[in-house]
Design brief:
Elements: H1 10-18, E1 29-42, E2 45-58, H2 73-80, E3 88-93
Antiparallel strand pairs: 1-2, 1-3
């Protein structure tokens, strides 16, 4: 039984998918991140670029990532595009961890 069968709203579905650490998302979800964290050591100072980001994107869904300069958009895109690795959290791409 899927979330659609039991009548969950879109937001509730996303919350259910992102709050189940260690479990593989269903095939409907192409990108799922759970508590992604990325930090950099810049000359002895720790810069926290991402602080526990949860994202769930369905197949054939269009998404825009918006925010002010320095909010972590590029860092998130680099993680989603597999160009970088998170310090903590999990990232599922097409059902693979």
């Amino acid at each position: 039984m899927s979330a659609v069968d039991i009548g969950l709203s879109t937001a509730a579905e996303r919350l259910a998918v992102t709050s189940a650490p260690g479990t593989a998302p269903s095939k409907d979800w192409v990108i799922v991140s759970r508590q992604l964290k990325r930090q950099y050591d810049m000359g002895g100072e720790i810069v926290r670029a991402l602080r526990g980001v949860d994202v769930a994107i369905r197949r054939n869904e269009y998404v825009a990532i918006m925010g002010p300069s320095g909010s972590g958009k590029s860092t998130l895109m680099n993680l989603i595009g597999c160009l970088d690795t998170p310090n903590e959290g999990e990232y599922w791409l097409n059902g693979m961890l």
